[in-house]
Amino acid sequence: MTDSVSGTAGAPITDDAPATEAGGRRSVPFRGGGFAPKPVWYVAPLMFVALVLLWEFGSSNGYISPLVLPAPTEVLGAFSDLVRSGMLAKHLQASLTRLVIGFACGATLGVLVGVAIGLYSIPRSAFKPLVAAIFPIPKIALLPLFIIWFGIGEGSKVATILFGSFFPMVIATYGGIDAVDRNLIRMGQSFNLSRVAIVRNIILPSALPAILNGMRIAASISIILLVAAEMIGAEYGIGAYVLLAGNLMATDQLIAGVATLSILGLIVSWLISLAERYFLRWRA
Hints:
Layout: E1 6-8, E2 11-12, H1 43-60, H2 72-84, H3 87-119, H4 121-134, H5 143-150, H6 154-178, H7 182-190, H8 195-230, H9 238-247, H10 251-279
Membrane topology: Multi-pass membrane protein
Function: Probably part of an ABC transporter complex. Probably responsible for the translocation of the substrate across the membrane.
Keywords: Cell membrane, Membrane, Transmembrane, Transmembrane helix, Transport
C-alpha cells in the first residue's frame, strides 16, 4: 500500500523530488517573502561613470558642441575655479541659510497643521479644503506677491521656500494619519489608554513613514524654489550664480552650478534616508 504523503511505500518525497503524474506531492520553495528589492551599491557609480565617459567622448570628438554642452573636464575646471576663488563657500552659505530656515519652518508648521487636520473635526473642515485649493498653485507664481509683502531681501526668499514646503507636509501628515489602522486605535482604547498616549504611541509612529516621504518631496520642492527665488534680486546663492553664468553664456560655469545643486539634493536625500533608518527601525 502506498503512503498518501510518500511517492513510494516507505520513501517520503524530499524537497528536490519531482512531482509525479499520479498526483504525488513535493515541497515547493517559499514564495511569501514579498517584493524586497535591495540596492546594489556599485551600479549607480558605474552608471554615472559610463555617462560621464560617453559625454567626454562626444565632446572630444565633436559630436557635442562645446557651446551647447562643454566637456566634463571644462566643467570640472570651472568648478575648481569656483572653489579656489572662495565664491562657492559664499554662494553655499547664502543658499543653505535660506533653505534651512525656510524648509525647517515650513515642515514644522506643515506637520502641526497636518496633525490637527488628521485628529480634529474643526481644523479638518477649515483647512483641508483650503489646502486642496492652494496646493496646485505654482508657488513661484506667488514670488512677486511675497516681494511686495516682505521686500526683495531675505524675507521673500524664505517665505517662498516655507510656503512651498508647507503644503506637501500637511498633505503627507494627515494622509498618513488617515491611513493608520483603526483596529490599532480601538485596541489602545480597549486598554484604556489616554488620547495623548494613543497619538504618541500608535498614530504618530504609524504615520511617520508617510511624513518622512512627504519631507523628501518637500525638500526637493524647496531646492527648486530656492533657485527660483535667488534668481530675483540675490547677490549670492547658487541660483544667482547659475543665472549670472547663463546671462554670460558661460555654459561650463552654468553646469558647474547645476552640478552643485544636484550634489546638494543628494545630500538632503541622504540625510532623510538616515532619518528614515533611525526612526523606522521598528519596521525591520
